[in-house]
Amino acid sequence: MRLPASAEPQFFDDLSREVALACDAGGTLTWVDARARNVLAANPGQTLRGLAAQGTEEKVDRLLVQARDEKVEGWELILCRDQVPTTFAFRARPHDGGVLLVGSLVPEDYGSALERVSTTLSEMSALHRETERQQRELKRRADELARLNNELEESNRGVRSLHAALDEKAESLQLAAEIKSRVVANVSHEFRTPLHSILGLSKVLLNPINGPLSSEQEKQVQFIRNSAEALFELVNDLLDLSKMEAGKAALRHSRFVVREVLSALRGMMKPLLPPGVPVELRLVEPDAPLELETDESRLSQVLRNLVSNALKFTESGHVTVSAAPGPRDTVVFTVQDTGIGIAPEHHERIFEEFSQVESHLQRKAKGTGLGLPLARRLTELLGGTLTVKSALGQGATFTVTLPRVHMEVTEMTGLTERSEHLDPSRAPVLVLEDDRQTLFLYEKYLARSGFQVLPVRSTDEARRVLERVRPAAMVLDVMLEGETSWGFLADMKNNEATRDIPILVVTVTDREQKARALGADEFWLKPVDEVRLQRKLQAMARTGPVERILIIDDDDVHRYLLKQLLKDMPYVLLEAAGGKEGVQLAREKSPHLIFLDFVLPDITAFDVLDELKADPRTRDVPVILHTSHELKEAERSRLAKETAAILAKHTLSREVAITRIRDALSKAGLGSQALQQEASRRG
Question: What secondary structure letter does DSSP report for 460?
């Protein structure tokens, strides 16, 4: 559509954003275009200054002055219509003594954008200043860290030097402690012999049968005997302390009731009551029978020491021994006296070796200062605590809190329970050792190298375990509690079913010649080194089951029955409920033998055999077919060529399974000596 030329401009008036003005040198409008009339309501005769927003009049005057002389670009003015301001960007030039002006309307969004840009630039400037400040702070901190690192490095060098000195000091202290323990043990043993002689001879002299002594002589001999008994008690205490410091104090656990301990204590302590002294020994038994499983002799020794100490420092009144159940399956023994008491500041000192608190009774009752320290050491050895509550003139109460079942007994029970469930991935090792601590060490040592410890503490226990499990090796201690294992060793090596089981004899007595003569494969003296033990057993026995057997059968019951037939045999048994799953498992696990059911839900046994033969990884794995299906002659003929044996499920027994497995593995060059021995023993 084409518009007439005269009509075209009017169509764009409302779209234009420019106004055109002309004014004289004084700023009076001489001409305005139509858009100026519409936008600014401007008319000739008005002044441009009169259209300006309040406060911008001088800017209008400067524009007119400059435009009379030269062309002006981009001069912003704010003009108003009905007090509504509008911003224009003017271009102007001189014309016939006046000024021509063309103004472009500046949109509000553009102004807002400019304002936002300005604000953003301000913020960026502030961020830049903040970044510079942070960089300076980071540099300062980096310098501080570098300084601290240098100081730490110097400290580390000092710490390393200190550690080296401490290690050297610890080694020298350990050596000194070992020398002290040996000296104490040797000297104590040397003391015991003459002390036994003195005690024995003094007893003979005091016996009227051997001739009468004068009262003075009897008094002198009694002094000698009393001194010898005190020295003998000191020697025994020193021996016990040296054993505990060296970690050689053995515990003999047994099951007993508290009433028995208190009854025995009454019989032992009654003679110690000083004649003519008003002191009563009371023993309060618990209301209900209270059973413990710990070392009864050590517990009695603790109570004897506490009662003896209480009797020494009680001039009148009573010494009461009581027992009651404690929290968290413990038993609490208390020894309470009405003696002189102990000041609170001396509560810890009395448990120090050879320490004694000065008192008038202390000077009368000579002591070694080892009774209470030994009692606390023994209590800690039993897994308990010994505390005291006392004040001067108010007597003393010693409290012994012991676990009802000693931790070694609990650990031994756990060890025995673990041994009853064989781990097919670890080779069983029978360990005949009567000391529980040594058994724990054996389990700790051997579990790290793929063995499962079967702990026994007597030869009878060992024989019972052998009826259930055939171990890969045995570790025997000769000197057991109440017996030796020489006869057991001879029986093992004379029995065809067990003679090939390697046996390592580990004991404290140097009887290697006898052990070798009875058939021991190796002989060591205690203590045992962990790494050496692991290497020796790995050389003597299999460190794990050699054979992995894969059972492919969709019947859960038949898989379970087959696993029961092979229970306690050194195999890793793998299972698959379908043919495809079985083939995939065979490729991943590389079994040494496969039990294959003939009827499978997804593919046939022939498909399984074909896939196994087609894969180089499974091509040589022997397969035993076991099925309840009645095979046709053609099927049997083909299967006989591709399998090691064909077994009927309803006639399968342990002996048959073991024999067929032995034959198949033997043909494949994987025969297990343990398996052959098991078959001969049970067949």
Answer: H
Query: Parallel, antiparallel, or unpaired: how do β-strands 479-480 and 483-484 relate?
Result: antiparallel
Q: In sequence order, what are the residues at sequence separation of 6 or more whose Cβ sits closer than 8 angstroms to the Cβ of residue 439?
A: 412, 415, 431, 433, 453, 455, 457
Q: Identify which has the larger pLDDT, 627 or 298.
A: 298
Q: What is the largest CA-CA distance in the chain?
A: 169
Task: Give the model's pLDDT for residue 15.
Answer: 63
CA 413 – CA 567 distance, rounded (Å): 23
Residue with tokens 């991943």: 588
Distance CA 427, CA 316 (A): 66
Q: Return d(Cα 493, Cα 507) in angstroms, integer.
A: 19
- Angle, helices 371-381 vs 296-312, to 10°: value is 150
Residues 6+ apart with CB under 8 A from 290: 257, 258, 259, 323, 324, 325, 331
Distance CA 595, CA 608 (A): 12
- CB distance 99 to 22 below 8 Å: yes
Q: Helix (H, G, I), strand (E, B), or coil: what is residue 427?
A: strand
Mean pLDDT rounded to a whole number for the chain: 80
Helix (H, G, I), strand (E, B) or coil at 294: strand
Joined together, the tokens standing for residue 605 give: 């046994």
Do 582 and 596 form a contact (C-beta atoms < 8 A)?
A: yes
Q: Which tens digit of pLDDT belongs to each residue from 632-678? A: 788 888 888 888 888 776 666 666 666 667 666 656 555 444 444 44
Query: Residue 241: what pLDDT?
Result: 66
Q: How far apart are CA 339 and CA 394, in angstroms?
A: 7
- For residues 515 and 476, the answer to whether their CB atoms sit within 8 Å is no
The residue among 629, 583, 632, 628 whose CA lies nearest residue 603 is 583
Residue type at position 639? L
Q: Locate tokens 């043909």: which residue?
A: 667
Q: Which of 383-392, 432-441, 526-535 has the highest mean pLDDT?
A: 383-392
DSSP 528: P
Q: What percentage of residues in the chain have a pLDDT greater than 90?
A: 14
How far, in Å, CA of 22 to CA of 64, rounded?
11
Share of the chain above pLDDT 70, in %: 81
Amino acid sitting at position 413: T
Place of tokens 């580990």: 506
Tens of pLDDT along 446-480? Answer: 877 778 889 888 899 899 888 888 888 899 998 88
Closest CA to 504 of 492, 522, 490, 530: 522
Amino acid at 77: L
Q: Which tokens go with 376? A: 């606390």
Residues 655, 565: Cα–Cα separation, whole Å: 9
Identify the top-confidence range among 233-247, 453-467, 563-577: 453-467
Give the phi and the psi of residue 120 in degrees, each rounded to 5: -60, -40
In angstroms, the CA 323 to CA 308 distance is 17
Quick one: pLDDT at residue 192? 66
Separation of alpha carbons 533 and 522, rounded Å: 11
Query: Is the Cα torsion angle 336, 341, 344, 346 positive or negative in sign?
Result: negative
What are the C-alpha distances in Å from 292 to residues 328, 383, 409, 410, 578? 14, 13, 11, 12, 55
Reported as a pLDDT band with limits 50, 70 and 90, residue 488 is very high
- Where do the H-state alpha helices sit in 496-555? 512-517, 530-540
Structure tokens belonging to residue 661: 């497995």
Calculate ∠ Cα 140-143-146, nearest 5°.
150
pTM (predicted TM-score): 0.45
